[in-house]
Amino acid sequence: MRQRIGVLTGLLVAALAACGQSPTTTEIKAYSGGNVSIKYAAPRVNGRAGQIFSKDGLISRDRTYPVWRAGANSATALHTEVDLRLGGLMVPKGDYTLFVELSDPAQWQLIVSKQTGQWGLSYNAANDLGRVKMTMAKPAQLVEILKYTLTGEGRKGTLQLEWENVQASVALEVK
Predict the structure, then answer these.
(1) Predicted local distance difference test score (pLDDT) of residue 51
(2) 12-71 residue pLDDT tens
(3) Integer Cα distance of 40 and 21 in angstroms
(4) What is the DSSP string of the chain?
(5) Could you give the C-alpha distances from 149 to 20, 42, 159, in angstroms and in order?
(6) What is the C-alpha to C-alpha distance for residues 117 and 166, in angstroms, rounded to an integer?
(7) Which is nearest to 125 in space by CA: 141, 114, 134, 135?
(8) 82: left (phi over 0), alpha (psi -120 to 50) or beta
(9) In the chain, where the domains are located
(10) What is the mean pLDDT of residues 140-158?
(11) Can you say whether residue 64 is alpha, beta or left, with left for phi > 0 and alpha for psi between -120 and 50 degrees?
(12) Contact residues for 85 (Cβ-Cβ < 8 A; gap 6+)
């Protein structure tokens, strides 16, 4: 009986810990020559609308601010089977981490880092492959769950990030 209670207690603790984590999802898109994927943890707004990206908001408390991990938990991972141009940045096929520099709310910059596999709050600018300006917009309605979308066909498309009341995108082209 004690063993069962111990097992049940352990399962309850594990379940509660898992509830604190944002679910991991992967966006995959086939382009000419291969796939591009983004693996990220998707946090929820959870009643904090208007309190996430403000000057004193949730993201401003991250130790890497004004650089944001562009997701939750582990750093957001980009994998490309093809050479890409993101905005004006050449990205050779391979694995990268995505961050966003958001000190200017009207002009975010997508950061492509050569460092991979780190926790999301571990950022070192020395590992940047480069940065590109993102096109900013406001979604038609509140976006409750952070979402990456890869769109387009053939050799051209868009990488888009949406969360809360922000939509940021960058052109993508297979080289």
Answers:
(1) 86
(2) 334 434 456 799 999 999 999 999 999 999 999 999 988 898 878 888 888 888 999 999
(3) 12
(4) -HHHHHHHHHHHHHHHHHHTSPPEEEEEEEETTEEEEEEEE--B-TT-TTSSSSTTSSGGGSTTTTEE-SSEEEEEEEEESS-EEETTEEE-SEEEEEEEE-SSTTS-EEEEES--S-BTT---GGGEEEEEE-EEE--SS-EEEEEEEEEEETTEEEEEEEEETEEEEEEEEE-
(5) 24, 12, 6
(6) 26
(7) 114
(8) beta
(9) 22-174
(10) 96
(11) alpha
(12) 91, 171, 172, 173, 175
| The Cα angle at residue 75 between residues 74 and 81, in degrees rounded to 5 | 120
Residue labelled with tokens 């888009």: 160
Tokens 């991979």: give the residue.
116
Q: Is the peptide bond before 66 cis (omega within 30 degrees of 0)?
A: yes
d(CA 128, CA 112): 6
